[in-house]
Specification:
This protein has three helices and 24 strands. It is mainly beta. The termini are far apart.
Amino acid sequence: MKLHDNFINKQRSTSPTLKLLLLGICLVFVAPVIKAESVLRNISTRGQVGTGQNVLIGGFIISGQDVKTVMIRALGPKLATSGISGVLADPTVEIFSGSMAIAFNDDWRDTQEADIQNTGIAPTDSLESSIIITLVPGAYTAIVRGLNNTTGIGIVEVFDISNSGSFLKFQNQLSQANDECLDGNQVIAGAPLGGASFMDSCANVRGQRWQFIPTGSGFFKLQTQLSQTNNECLEGGSFENFATHMASCANVTGQVWRFTPVGDGFFQLQTQQSQGINKCLEANQVAAAFMADCDNNVMGQRWQFLPATTP
């Protein structure tokens, strides 16, 4: 496959946190070495998209310890406006973690339309595809195909849209219908549910704005913007139906969390303590969150991370 062009943008930073490797059939494109004072912010490559194994593949690695919010775009019709013929008329994009598909999109306006528009880099054609997803450090793959096995020239792009020190909201698949988010208040007299984390209507409040604090080996502590003042973290034990709650941050296994992708952009959450007996964070509508037997078919255990706006 002929390499048409590659684009690399970078901005100044203290350390590189996003590395990308873009691949196509008969093509291996490796991003050049970025100096320590720079961080790769976006990269794209253009090539022929065929059928079967002859697809356009973009592999990218999130390095370091911080989670990253990325936006992946699959473009085709846009190229026709530049006079390019034989473009991919209706591109789709699918994200993989290893062999597991974790997100898919065909036509970016069908899902996440408002979030994608808010980035300022939304695709210009409704048939093009895009995904915004928050990911933990690791290796991922974006695969571009044509809908119904159509072929043509397409582009795959990955953008790092994370903001330093940004907050995220937690929502599980069950709570999406009623737009409820995980809330964690300070452990003070009169706190809802005695300081337990719970589901509540999504709002622009500090108790729903969560930050991931890396502790090493792929684990994170979880703090809300509200709980940072008293240095409190989300704690989840290993007991069935044990309510997760905010507690003074300490070096305990019940306060360090790991996120495992389970498909469709969702993750299961486990503490280091609960991994040995396979317990996951679960929450039902307007109720305290708790630890329960891990089951990928339970919607209350399938969590998504959403950008949180400034209160």
